[in-house]
């Protein structure tokens, strides 16, 4: 990896880690989701990085993919198990990291430790040429040893410039059908999920997180307001996910009907919430690493 690129990843990683810890400290009884999301995102920008995706605040049975709307008034309640997932980038070089916080109780300490230990064990194994199914195996064994299930249809992912999910998947279960090996310089987001539920997720309702489709087809939009909005979104967010609430910087009102119309036309994708199929509680921990010949460097 080019030295300049390497420094950008390290810088993105440092800012992401600080933002994650800052956000995690804020998650307390009675605090608004929206406040946490806004403050974490502001801090990322103040430190000089870009936001790689909206701050995800996923509660309890929601494993991932929820970001508050512009008018969200929900607050953290006692016993909530909160996954805070944060992404930053410097010139498109992305760092992605997540942590689980339980609000006011300690009922899920061991499940939080299960995903955290699974991540540590995976990191200890990661190096150039390692079979990623071996990494999935250690994640599965670690989480199972605590009496929980890994989520088998969520995986870690490789990162490329301005690309949040770029090819490689890091499984959370032993998966011998897929013998993939990372190379030196590959950047991977590793994210084990543990649950006391089904161990796989299904799609729920909308996450308030969107992505512009790569294939440019704004000419199919007849209505000028939607067309203008789509062009602005592509210009501003490019290939990275964006939040419903960010669209108020592009359009002062009527954001929701435009988002709905653009989703319907297939010009933007609305991500769904990812929810454990049996409604079990889910914990997650995530770091971004750079693969080395003899190990890996955690940048978050
Ligand atoms: Co993440």
Write a structural description.
With 300 residues, this protein is of the alpha+beta class. The chain has two domains: 3-203 and 275-298, Creatine Amidinohydrolase, CATH 3.90.230.10; 206-274, Winged helix-like DNA-binding domain superfamily/Winged helix DNA-binding domain (Arc Repressor Mutant, subunit A, Orthogonal Bundle), CATH 1.10.10. 31% of the residues lie in helices and 28% in strands. The protein is built from six helices and 15 strands. The protein has helices at residues 3-26, 33-46, 109-125, 132-145, 224-237, 255-264; strands spanning 50-59, 62-64, 81-90, 93-102, 149-150, 156-159, 169-170, 187-190, 193-195, 201-212, 242-243, 268-276, 282-284, 287-292, 295-298. It has a five-stranded antiparallel beta sheet with strand order 7-6-8-14-15. A four-stranded antiparallel beta sheet has the order 2-12-10-11. Strands 1-3-4 form a three-stranded antiparallel beta sheet. Strand 3 (81-90) and strand 4 form a beta hairpin. Helix 3 packs antiparallel against helix 4 (132-145). The longest helix is centred in the first third of the chain and has 24 residues, at 3-26. The chain is globular. The mean pLDDT is 95. Bound molecules: cobalt (II) ion. The site of cobalt (II) ion (CO) has 6 residues, from strand 4.
Residue share in helices? 25-40%
Roughly what is the average pLDDT, rounded to an integer?
Answer: 95
Which structural class should the secondary elements be placed in? alpha+beta
Order of helices and strands: HHEEEEHHEEEEEEHEHEEEE
> Can you identify the CATH superfamily of the largest domain?
Creatinase/methionine aminopeptidase superfamily
The fraction of residues assigned to DSSP E strands is 25-35%
Q: How many domain regions?
A: 2
Q: Give the names of the bound compounds.
A: cobalt (II) ion
Strand order of the largest sheet: 7-6-8-14-15
How many helices? The count is 6
Query: Given the C-alpha coordinates, what overall shape results?
Result: globular
**Main sheet summary:** 5 strands, antiparallel
Low-confidence stretches: none
> N-to-C terminal Cα separation, in Å?
18 Å
Level-2 CATH architecture of the largest domain: Alpha-Beta Complex
Q: What is the level 1 CATH name of the largest domain?
A: Alpha Beta
CATH topology call of the largest domain: Creatine Amidinohydrolase
Q: How many beta-strand elements?
A: 15
Radius of gyration from the alpha-carbon trace, in angstroms:
19 Å
């Amino acid at each position: 990896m080019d030295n300049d690129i390497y420094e950008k990843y390290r810088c993105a990683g440092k800012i992401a880690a600080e933002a994650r810890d800052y956000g995690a400290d804020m998650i307390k009884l009675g605090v608004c989701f929206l406040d946490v999301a806004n403050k974490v995102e502001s801090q990322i920008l103040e430190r000089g990085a870009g936001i790689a995706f909206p701050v995800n605040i996923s509660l309890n049975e929601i494993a991932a993919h929820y970001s508050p709307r512009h008018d969200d008034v929900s607050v953290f309640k006692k016993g909530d198990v909160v996954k805070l997932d944060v992404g930053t980038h410097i010139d498109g070089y992305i760092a992605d990291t997540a942590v689980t916080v339980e609000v006011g109780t300690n009922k899920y300490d061991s499940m939080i430790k299960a995903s955290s230990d699974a991540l540590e064990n995976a990191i200890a194994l990661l190096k150039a040429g390692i079979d990623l199914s071996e990494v999935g195996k250690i994640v599965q064994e670690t989480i199972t040893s605590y009496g929980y299930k890994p989520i088998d249809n969520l995986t870690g992912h490789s990162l490329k410039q301005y690309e949040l999910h770029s090819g490689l998947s890091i499984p959370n279960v032993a998966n011998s059908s897929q013998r993939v090996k990372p190379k030196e310089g590959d950047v991977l987001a590793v994210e084990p999920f543990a649950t006391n539920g089904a161990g796989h997720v299904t799609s729920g309702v909308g996450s308030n997180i969107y992505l512009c489709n790569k294939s440019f087809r704004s000419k199919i939009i007849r209505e000028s307001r939607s067309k203008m909005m789509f062009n602005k979104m592509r210009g501003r967010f490019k290939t990275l996910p964006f939040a419903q609430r960010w669209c108020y910087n592009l359009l002062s009102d009527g954001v929701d009907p435009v988002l709905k119309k653009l989703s319907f036309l297939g010009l933007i994708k609305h991500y769904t919430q990812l929810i454990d199929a049996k409604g079990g509680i889910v914990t997650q921990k995530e770091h971004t690493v750079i693969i080395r010949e003899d190990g890996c460097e955690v940048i978050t």
